Amino acid sequence: MSQGQFVLGAFIPGTLSGSAWRLPEAPLDTFRSLEHYQYIARKLEAGRFHSLFFNDTLDVKLDLALQRGPNSVRWDPLILAPALAASTRHIGLIATASTTYNEPYNVARKYAALDHLSGGRAGWNLVTSLGGGENFNRQEHVEHDDRYARAEEFYDVVSGLWDSWADDAFIQDKASGTWLDIDKLHVLDHQGEHFQVRGPLNVSRSPQGHPVVAQAGASVAGKRLAARVGELIFTAQHTIEQGRAFYQETKAAAAAFGRGANELKILPGVSPVVGKTLAEAQAKYDRQQELLEPKAFLSSISKFVSLGYDLSELPFDEVVPLPPEHFTTNTHQSRQKLVFDLIRRERPTVRQLFNQLTSGGHRILIGTPESIADDLHAWYEAGAADGFNIMFSGLHSAIDDFVDCVVPELQRRGLFQREYAGTTLRENLGLPYRTNRFF
Amino acid sequence: MSQGQFVLGAFIPGTLSGSAWRLPEAPLDTFRSLEHYQYIARKLEAGRFHSLFFNDTLDVKLDLALQRGPNSVRWDPLILAPALAASTRHIGLIATASTTYNEPYNVARKYAALDHLSGGRAGWNLVTSLGGGENFNRQEHVEHDDRYARAEEFYDVVSGLWDSWADDAFIQDKASGTWLDIDKLHVLDHQGEHFQVRGPLNVSRSPQGHPVVAQAGASVAGKRLAARVGELIFTAQHTIEQGRAFYQETKAAAAAFGRGANELKILPGVSPVVGKTLAEAQAKYDRQQELLEPKAFLSSISKFVSLGYDLSELPFDEVVPLPPEHFTTNTHQSRQKLVFDLIRRERPTVRQLFNQLTSGGHRILIGTPESIADDLHAWYEAGAADGFNIMFSGLHSAIDDFVDCVVPELQRRGLFQREYAGTTLRENLGLPYRTNRFF
Ligand SMILES: Cc1cc2nc3c(=O)[nH]c(=O)nc-3n(C[C@H](O)[C@H](O)[C@H](O)COP(=O)(O)O)c2cc1C
Ligand SMILES: Cc1cc2nc3c(=O)[nH]c(=O)nc-3n(C[C@H](O)[C@H](O)[C@H](O)COP(=O)(O)O)c2cc1C
């Protein structure tokens, strides 16, 4: 069985994802409305969610899917998160930022400031990005392993800068006029391959010591980084067995870096569709699937994972051909592997594959509050998860369903918290405070 | 006489500046407290200030002044501004961001998002920065004219990205499933000397079209940039004659770029100290001056403007020696010129210079609500200002004094607004909407 408390994080896409925006009850313009996000953050906080997570990309893919939904248009999470920090009191706010197209000094500073102003509720989803080179002085996206090499060093600089000041550096003695103790300041002086950063950071140490670091890399290099520095590990396993294997492998890999099992939480993503009855849930799901444009979706996913052929050109009920023997993509290795494996293992028809993939590769849970709670409970009991990253489309009614129906069911079982355990995100998650390595 | 409405902007430093933190009534820890800033923003909004402005630096100067006050430790304005946007309804929020140590795609996106979530209240103080190279892979700060060359192109990329989408690009037709009209998208494809950026921006066009651009450069290159792209011009003139000359020069320079006089507002900075009587105001001022540490201040300003000798080593009542003949500094050319000119013109003692410079070179206005209103009124009438950038230390009582006493006096004279004129910052300032150049 998994140890520590059962964690619930929420994943909210840039704006209503998939076909959700086409539903009659979906408001227009959610991508220009702070109120939309405030509603979500406050509702999830009422449901005692530990955290709210915003993914991010740095480009607009000029493909067929662009016209079909708000996939690539979204606010910068580091602008949205502070606004939501001022609109909530307890929920953690995890914003994605790229190590490939940012400077570590800027990133260290922004998260430290977010941690301050939220009272210790900041998290950083550290990504190497799925694209964007063409917007940052490059012909192409930086190559996969170079991205991770840079990310490793980037993290070292950022976390070193977070330790620029002892917690008690700022004595602020009015009588003598001494604002800070100069001996409680560490000049990082990082001289590395990718970065030369002197420091110190121009923000004091923040309430959590370090903001919580989330990581979702799943390639060899990605898993290594996650094991070394990730505190929340987002993943996308489909069966309890796969989940347990990943869980054990990841905690063991972290242990090899000298980290305790309680220093990282493994959160598989699940997409819930909640109904009073299974039939009602299934009807809700079908309604959304019918509004999806299979052709646009299948064509862009074919490209995304470098399938080598275009799924959208195949008849809907034909069995999907086998993918190429070897994995070769510069963007999304783990998603490619997931799709290739799925095709090899299940030999699905195009329609079946379509249905599986429309949640972005995450497990879709269609059911009643009881059946969904059963499922999450079983994964947790089996040691396949420390909790879950609940993937929402952004539709308010679906979030309401989960908070109003599934959360109480989880609480009734004594599985999920009725109150926040502490003040900071770290305390709420049961992650240890990050002490300063220099003081 | 100046045209258009009388503008009041507020300048709030990273945290309590100068010696304000040493006053008995100053709370500790303002540099870690969102409530501190929320109080200020809401008070200024109650006083109908047009905007609230946050300056920024990207390094910690390891000098004597560091111990003496919170000069270089501050949150990133682009993290603070969204939190304040969620905490206010009318006031404009102007955040500083560097063109030297950022990427234009990131900057364009962050301000567009801030403009969205604030309902059109975002401004960008475009600076080339006073330092920071050592935190961004460099031995030294980028050279002055190179910074401005980069800034010119940076602005072109950012403003081009802001025009990525027609205002009506996002049709969101639920029936057909068409989210956007692909013909209403402009791919920038910028290929320049410093930047190659394809676009489009992954944020839709924001309420103001473009966030308002503020600029305070005062070197030859700085003034050129301000004349071409600045909409709020921060400056630091000391006499009405200087103010008028700068005003006319700047509006003429803008006209040479094809811009109308109403397309930019010139706002000299003033530091007010308000009392019921002049004596009370003077006493407030003296109290703060006494708490300053002259040695630390004089030593760091000597370095800052490359004076060539150390003011802190001279007797306090000695006349300051003449500065070097030629200006040579890579950081702050206009401030250097201001200090050198002041020394040459007024031949002050060290003490007199100290008193003049402790407001960072801005004019200090010690007086009653009436005398301060008289002064501001006279500048406005004389065509030396479109309004003012009121420099506060961050001390709440000083902001209260201004809002509760000076603002009503300005309103009584019919000079200053009793209500906001519109919804967006641009509307409130009387600046024209920025139409999309591509649609
Ligand atoms: C729940 C979840 C959220 C993710 N969010 C982002 C994101 O916001 N931005 C991004 O570029 N990648 C995101 N990713 C992708 C991963 O960070 C990573 O880039 C991807 O798994 C490819 O990494 P790999 O090459 O190590 O497999 C996410 C992945 C998962 C499972
Ligand atoms: C009111 C005011 C605010 C300023 N704020 C900033 C700031 O936040 N960050 C910064 O680097 N420079 C700031 N400056 C400095 C100018 O942007 C500019 O860098 C400086 O005047 C030197 O430019 P120059 O070399 O063109 O003279 C400010 C100047 C004034 C007058």
TrEMBL record, chains A, B:
GO molecular function, one term: oxidoreductase activity, acting on paired donors, with incorporation or reduction of molecular oxygen
Signal peptide boundaries: none
CDD domains found in the cross-reference section: Nitrilotriacetate_monoxgenase
Pfam name, any one: Bac_luciferase
The keyword Transmembrane helix belongs to this UniProt entry's keyword annotation: no
SUPFAM superfamilies with a match to the protein in the record: Bacterial luciferase-like (SSF51679)
Annotated Luciferase-like domain residues: 39-384
Keywords noted in UniProt: Flavoprotein, FMN, Monooxygenase, Oxidoreductase
PANTHER family listed in its UniProt record: ALKANESULFONATE MONOOXYGENASE-RELATED, C2H2 FINGER DOMAIN TRANSCRIPTION FACTOR (EUROFUNG)-RELATED
Family: Belongs to the NtaA/SnaA/DszA monooxygenase family.
Name of the protein described by the UniProt record: LLM class flavin-dependent oxidoreductase
Organism: Pseudomonas bharatica CSV86
Taxon lineage: Bacteria, Pseudomonadati, Pseudomonadota, Gammaproteobacteria, Pseudomonadales
